[in-house]
Request: fold
Amino acid sequence: MKALPIVRGLLSYVPGFERWRSRGTGGSDSARYCYAVWMRHLVKAAESGLDTSPRTVAELGPGDSLGLGLAALLSGARRFVALDVIEHAATETNLRVLAELERLFAQRSPIPDDREFPEIGPDLDSYEFPHHLLSDERLAQSLEERRVAQIRDSTARPQRGESMIRYVAGWSDRAILEEASVDMLCSQAVLEHVQDLSGVYRAIARWLRPGGFASHQIDLRSHGLSADWNGHWAISRPVWRLIVGRRRYLLNRAPCSVHLDHIRGSGLIPRSGVRQHRVSAVRRRQLAAPYRGISDEDLETSGLFVQAQRPVDQ
Ligand SMILES: C[S@@+](CC[C@H](N)C(=O)[O-])C[C@H]1O[C@@H](n2cnc3c(N)ncnc32)[C@H](O)[C@@H]1O
Reply:
C-alpha cells in the first residue's frame, strides 16, 4: 500500500489545494493525442458497422482540450458538445490544437500508433490514414476554407449562439442535453472516474438518437494509487475513503462487467467489446471485501473498449 495517495486524499480537505495541485488530465492538450483518439473511435465504429458520418458528436470528459471534438468537426460533424465536471480546456489550448489538427488532416497523416502513445487504447489493425472513411471528396467539403474558419470562430467563441461547439464544465443534470440529440458519444479514460455510473450510463442512452452510439475506452487500472496495476481492488473501504478525500473525482473501482451491465441496463446494445487483458498482480485472498466475488476474467481485465448502440426502433 502506498502512503502518498492517502496523504493526497487528506490534503484535498485543505481549501484551495485541489485547484493548486491541478496538473492537467492526461494527454488531450496534444493535437496528435486527440487525432489518435478520434481516429480510433471512428475506425472502430466502421468495423462495428456503425455510422461514421455523425452530425452531432458529444464527448464526456474531454480534459485538457476539446481536440477530439475539433477532429470530429474537421471530419464533417456539424456540432460538438463536450461535458466535463471541471473546466480543464482553455480556449488558447483549443485554438493551438485546432491549428495542428488542420495540418494532420490536410497531410492525411497516419494515425499515431501504440509506439508513440502506448497508453491509448484500443489498438488498431492498421495505422494508415483511413481513406476509406475520410475520402478526398469528404475532406474537400469538411476542410473547405470557410467551414474551417467557422470551426475556428466556434472554438474562439464557444458561448456564441451560432457556435458549432458547446462546452459545459460542471454538468450534473442529464437535462443538460436534449433527448435523442446525439449521433455519437465518445469518452476516453473517463468512465472509470465517474461516481454515479448508473445515472451517467442512463443519461448517455437518453441523449443518443435511435441508431446513435456510444464509444468508450475505459482504463480499469489503479492509476498509480497502488504499486500493482490492480492493487486498487485490494484496498479496504475505510482506507479508500481516505484516499478519495474531497477530490472532485478519482476512481470508481468498477470492474469491466459492471460497466457492461450498466450499458445493457441502460437499453443500449453492445456492438463490440474488446477486453484488454493483463495477468493479475494481486491474489484473490488479498482482495478487499467488495471485490472478493469478482470473476477471474474481471480480475485480469485492465481496460475495455466498447461501442454500444441505441436500438433504431426506440
Ligand atoms: C483522465 S481524464 C481524461 C481526459 C481526456 N478524455 C483524455 O483522454 O486525456 C478524465 C476526465 O474525466 C472528467 N470527468 C470525471 N468525472 C466526470 C463526469 N461525471 N462527467 C464528465 N467528465 C468527468 C475529468 O474532469 C477529466 O476531464
Remarks:
- The chain has one domain: 4-309.
- The pocket of S-adenosylmethionine is lined by residues 25-28, 60-63, 83-86, 88, 188-190, 193-194, 200, 249 (CB under 6 Å).
- The domain at 4-309 is CATH 3.40.50.150 (Rossmann fold).
